[in-house]
Write a structure and sequence with these properties.
Shape: globular
Strand content: over 45%
Number of helices: 4
Radius of gyration: 23 Å
Structural class: mainly beta
Order of helices and strands: HHHEEEEEHEEEEEEEEEEEEEEEE
Number of strands: 21
Distance between the termini: 51 Å
Length: 470
């Protein structure tokens, strides 16, 4: 009886997919108006924006420089629901693996509420149910949530920014925020999935100011919160002086992982070279502490940065400089001189969007290490390649090397999704996700997961157009 129940979803999926494809052949839309919002959204995304608001973040800001925002500010919320059949090769990411199939149900909600001209609340969340968890003895419901609250005060020469970013997930947010098998459901509240005509101003925090989670730990609940305050002074059209203070924490809801906290200050001087190009100098200080231990690390660094920004098209920045790491326990004598770097890219063409970030910096160790040198690159590519088809890819690589031991973790992820628009607010998607992590220099009792994982998915998405909030 149990075997029969597990086979039913596969048969049901074949029937539903065949029905949807046949309906699409019989009722192919003849214009963008007949197909509703799905096709219209893609056409709008391909056109040159007529009313772009430029991004004015300086290079040394605590928020990432973006390409600007399209259109007027509107408050809205966007729900969607997806059903998928998943084939997972290695749910636990262990050296021994075997494939298992299961059904996944997922509900997403994205929301933005503007409070006046310079304040906003953003939320992105998902709740997921899967039949695999019961087999493995895990909770059948997993969820991930991200909330951002920001407020900016503007005067003739001064800009003041207050920002708070909170995330909860049941897994590391390196690639999938714990929502296994469905790819990048939620990454940040300034990135909106599946809605091509919504382009928001950047509220993403610089990656080195946010508690790092680039070591994979699977379904382990955690809360990440970062509070940031920034003051920008613009005496003229050429120079901008910035001062940023921040405090971030990473707290785990179960034992076995290390709670971390980081705080610091960043001072910067920015100089505009042309309407599109700028350079900057910055000095940063950060301090890391770890719960249950007297261990602490302090980082002092300098950086030289260059940025290029063309509204609506490209925003790119790169910078590097020396850093000095000192151990809070003098007896350990782990002081080290090295270098740090970071870069971001947001590039938008008619049918292609590319987003990427690179960091080399001291981080808190992702709840596994007492501080780490972290080298990582993450990115995403969106491409509309046919009239009713589009695809997206996410990728990432991270190497975390412990500061006070010989431990090291190398993690990679890749996600590819192809979506077929079958009608108004209805899509079929095909997905493949890869996770891989290796470790060295650690005892078996202190290592995080290690193994390779392949996850295949096929399913339906029912989405809704943005619903206005008045």
């Amino acid at each position: 009886m149990k075997n029969f129940l597990y086979r039913v979803p596969f048969v049901l999926w074949l029937f539903l997919i065949a029905t949807a494809l046949v309906a699409q052949v019989q009722e192919e839309p003849t214009s963008g108006q007949e197909d509703g919002s799905v096709l219209t959204v893609q056409q709008n995304a391909d056109e040159e924006p007529a009313d772009m608001t430029p991004d004015d973040h300086p290079l040394t800001s605590g928020q990432v420089m973006g390409i600007g925002a399209r259109g007027p500010q509107h408050s809205f919320w966007v729900p969607d629901f997806r059903v998928a059949q998943i084939l997972d090769s290695n749910p636990y990411m262990t050296p021994q693996s075997h494939y298992r199939g299961y059904t996944s149900l997922n509900g997403d909600l994205q929301l933005i509420q503007y409070l006046g001209r310079d304040a906003s609340i953003r939320y992105a969340g998902a709740v997921r149910f899967d039949t695999q968890a019961q087999i493995q003895g895990l909770q059948q419901f997993t969820n991930a949530h991200a909330l951002s609250i920001s407020k900016q005060f503007r005067s003739h020469a001064w800009d003041l920014l207050m920002d708070n970013e909170t995330q909860y997930s049941q897994g590391a947010n390196f690639g999938a925020t714990g929502m296994e098998g469905l790819g990048s459901v939620i990454t940040t509240t300034s990135a909106w999935g599946g809605i091509g005509n919504i382009q928001l101003e950047s509220t993403a925090l610089q990656p080195d100011l946010v508690p790092n989670q680039s070591i994979l730990t699977l379904r382990s609940g955690r809360i990440s919160n970062t509070i940031l305050g920034e003051a920008d002074y613009r005496p003229d059209g050429l120079y901008t002086f910035t001062m940023t203070g921040f405090y971030g924490l990473l707290h785990f809801t179960q034992s076995g992982l290390i709670d971390t906290a980081q705080e610091g200050l960043v001072f910067g001087v920015n100089r505009a070279l042309t309407p599109y190009d700028s350079i900057a100098l910055e000095y940063g200080y950060s301090n890391f502490t770890f719960s249950g231990t007297s261990q602490s690390l302090t980082n002092n660094y300098f950086g030289v940065l260059y940025g290029r920004r063309i509204t609506g098209r490209i925003a790119a920045s790169v910078g590097a400089g020396p850093q000095y790491i000192s151990d809070g326990r003098p007896a350990d004598n782990n002081n080290q001189l090295g270098w740090q770097a970071r870069g971001t890219l947001d590039w938008q063409m008619k049918q292609v969007g590319l987003h990427a970030s690179v960091i080399r910096s001291l981080t808190g160790g992702s709840g596994v290490l007492f501080g780490a040198y972290t080298n990582s690159v993450q990115g995403g590519l969106d491409y509309g390649f046919w009239r009713n088809w589009d695809a997206n890819m996410i990728f990432g690589y991270a190497r975390n090397t412990a500061i006070i031991s010989a431990q090291r973790y190398d993690a990679q992820y890749l996600g590819v999704t192809a979506t077929r628009h079958t009608g108004r607010n209805r899509d079929i998607f095909f997905s493949y996700n890869l996770q891989n992590q290796t470790s060295s220099g650690c005892a078996a009792t202190t290592c995080a997961v290690s193994g390779i994982r392949h996850v295949f998915g096929i399913g339906f998405v029912w989405s809704h157009e943005p619903i206005g909030i008045y």
